[in-house]
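dumping this here before i forget
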Amino acid sequence: MRRFRPSLTWLGLLPFAAFVILFLFAPTMKIVFGAFQRADGSFTFENIAGLFTPSILSSYWISIKISVASSALGCLVGFLMAAAVILGGLPKGIRSPLLTFSGVASNFAGVPLAFAFLATLGPLGLVTVFLKTQFGINLRAMGFNILSFWGLTITYLFFQIPLMILIITPAIDGLKREWREAAQVLGATGAQYWRMVALPILFPSILGTFALLFANAFGAVATAIALTGSSLNIVPIMLFAQIRGDVLGNPHLGYAMALGMIVVTATANVIYIWLRLRAERWLK
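structure:
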């Protein structure tokens, strides 16, 4: 038998492995253990039981609704934009700038994104003032508030739509021309082709991307805190209030809330990976 000789090529993975261990695995384990501890370090289930109080359950429910709304709208708009560019007969030169912008916008979040939407749709934002002075349309009087449920949902769409475009574009590219031609030979209309052939093939990709967008929105922290502050009772804001160290805070309850967020986002990502693998069977 040959003597085992470790390959030096594995050394290239060491920086990435160290990064994952230090900034992903170790903090996650601290959250998991901290969720089952008291301030003195003793074991307890009190923090987990605290997740079922009305205020925390309400914050989870609001976060889930915002994530579902932004994911559904992001999937719909992103899919239509990607299909229009790839299959709609638009100039080919549009595709590259759209994908480039999507790659940048899908990672644009946090304080800059919150400031951009406050400066645009806030009480004294550019669009708000322009509509009121030029057309007499008062968005505040109509019930729109950027610091509300729909305000945060619209803000999330700025990175949800580009992420949908980036993920669904390869799936739409995978639709073979022979499938459409075969459907036309058999007498199918364009609507029947999409309803009976294209959409069933793309459905696992669309549903998987929805799960990924849900996890992306549910775990967004900096944008929500910078935009709404304490005016909207969502999980990241309540979590921040628990761990920031004031007299009313309970860091270990914050660990339990963070553990709940990890469970929700991990479940969504597992669903995405599973559906993605199923979708790739059709696209090979």
